[in-house]
Amino acid sequence: MLSEHFAASVSAAAVAPKATSNSVKDVGISIFESQPHSGQRASFKKSNTAPNCLAVSPSHVFAAQADKAVVNVYSRDKGNQEATVPFQERITCLALACEDSVLVLGSQTGRIFVWETHTGRVVITSQAHLQQVTALVVDPTSNFVLSASADASIHVWSLPALLSFSNAALQGQHSPLHTLSGHRAAITSLVVGHSAGFCNIAVSASADQSCIVWDYHENQLLRTVLLPAVPRCLALDPADRAFYTAYDDGSVQIVDFYSDAFSAANPDSVQHPLYDPAQAAMPVQPPPQTRWTPPSADQGAALSAMLSYDGSTLMTGHNNGNVLVWDVPLGRYSSTFTAAPMMGPVTNLVSLPVQGFPDARPALINQVTIVKPKHAAFDKADLDGAVPGNYNLSMQFSRQLPMPHISASKKQSATVESEFLTALTHPVFPESLLADSLAELANWNGSVKVQLAAPAAAAVPTPAAPAEAPAAQPQVSDTADFMSLDAPETSTGPSVEQQNEALRAELAALKRVQRASLIQMEALRKEKVELLAKIRQDIDDDMEDEVNEDEKSERAWGRLASTGEYVESDEESE
């Protein structure tokens, strides 16, 4: 059965809600199950998290603290706080990338930190924005990072370029690929689409009461949406068909890309409304009926939003600690998820991957413990793009590696990629390899005879004959070294010079065979070319004869039409 989970975090409230019997004091982050059963599954204490400052991986929870320049790291397996990671300045937003192995952080001064949690390496950019970074998102391919700021700008960064060791000599002088400029006030929220192609979109919300849809690959503004109030948070539909925004009064509004408002300028166009150049310059104002009102006015501002896996349910976290559930198909408030308000304003709602798919496999790499940042430990200008010697990777394989014949108790598969791979992945020496090796050792020197068992699968020498048959015992000289090319002269086998002469004779014979083969291949190639040329010539001759026959017939019929007499050709008369 499929199950959906999400993480919710709170910040310190100006007036903490009254504790009830169902609430736990000092719980800052909670893991809830929303489908098929509702309830709290885990909780972590001592966290004061601002909006856009929560990231959750399968093994850890990262929460940037609002009151200090630290990031709290919690272990989901152990259920406790694993580490407190200090930074040079206060972190205002964060996001996970590269299959949850890289954490991207935005700072209060406008800089970007890229932290490899498996190695401890940290890449720090220069002052990317003029003011603090308010939101960070990573596209599905982990190739691009979008950073939004209170200075109304959005930078698009290349994550592989930031992590490349060839750029280590820049010493923080990294530059974004391009800047998305279109807002006139601080950006409050930023989301990116779910597509892995080059037509993916990003949506930004600003305090200037507008949202803009971007093509961040091409640095192009696709559409501007004018809103009735300042949007506080955004949520994008799983199929990128619409986005949802919430306001200070707790209400929610849907902006549908396929609605009449987006196609008003050209309603008969068959092109996607976002990519129609005839409508790009026209702002969109969603109708009032697309705005949904909360059940009561005491819910407070909606600070976070999240959609379910199928996009049929919208959840919003509010200033009074409640998490409201909205029915998207009906377009109205449905219920309150939390029976009692949480211990502060719900600043973050993060959906987790759906569990329960029958063909789902766990991730190959599991991060048991994180490696704290090692600032400037790997930034050496003299490496010339090489990996530093102190660069170590700390990880654990969570399941069996995809390698065949890894178990001695399992029978080998009939489809073997190669003998080398079989020998490499076998837990012991394969029987076939032992048999071939023993046979090779037996023939290495003529003075040594090793008797092998009749079946090759036995892969062991034949036991010695009984005492009554001593003649069957192999006579091995104590001084004979059958692993050495320079056997002693007392050996009855061929000497080294004789063996070398035999090898030279074999090599000369192989060269003669190779030369004869090449000559024969060249003769066959010429014969093939001549045969193809003859076939083409025969075809051309046949076509020419047909053309001549057609011309003679046309002349005869033309004479008949003009004179009334039909003159037979020579061939017809014959």
What can you tell me about this protein's structure?
With 574 residues, the protein is α+β, with helices and mostly antiparallel strands. It folds into 3 domains: 4-381, 7 Propeller (Methylamine Dehydrogenase, Chain H); 430-460, no CATH class; 519-574. It contains 5 helices and 30 strands. The chain has a 4-stranded antiparallel sheet with strand order 3-2-1-28, with no helix packed on it. It is extended. The termini are far apart. Residues 19-23 and 446-491 have low confidence and may be disordered.
Describe the structure concisely.
The chain is α+β, with helices and mostly antiparallel strands and 574 residues long. Helices cover 17% and strands 29% of the residues. The chain has 3 domains: 378 residues, YVTN repeat-like/Quinoprotein amine dehydrogenase (Methylamine Dehydrogenase, Chain H, 7 Propeller); 31 residues, no CATH class; 56 residues.
List the helices and strands and how they pair.
Layout: E1 4-10, E2 27-35, E3 39-45, E4 49-56, E5 60-65, E6 70-75, E7 80-86, E8 91-97, E9 102-107, E10 112-116, E11 122-124, E12 133-138, E13 144-149, E14 153-158, H1 159-163, E15 178-181, E16 187-192, E17 202-206, E18 210-215, E19 220-226, E20 233-236, E21 242-246, E22 252-256, E23 291-292, E24 302-307, E25 313-318, E26 323-327, E27 332-336, E28 346-351, E29 365-366, E30 396-397, H2 419-425, H3 431-442, H4 496-563, H5 570-573
Antiparallel strand pairs: 1-2, 1-28, 2-3, 4-5, 5-6, 6-7, 8-9, 9-10, 10-11, 12-13, 13-14, 14-15, 16-17, 17-18, 18-19, 20-21, 21-22, 22-23, 24-25, 25-26, 26-27, 29-30
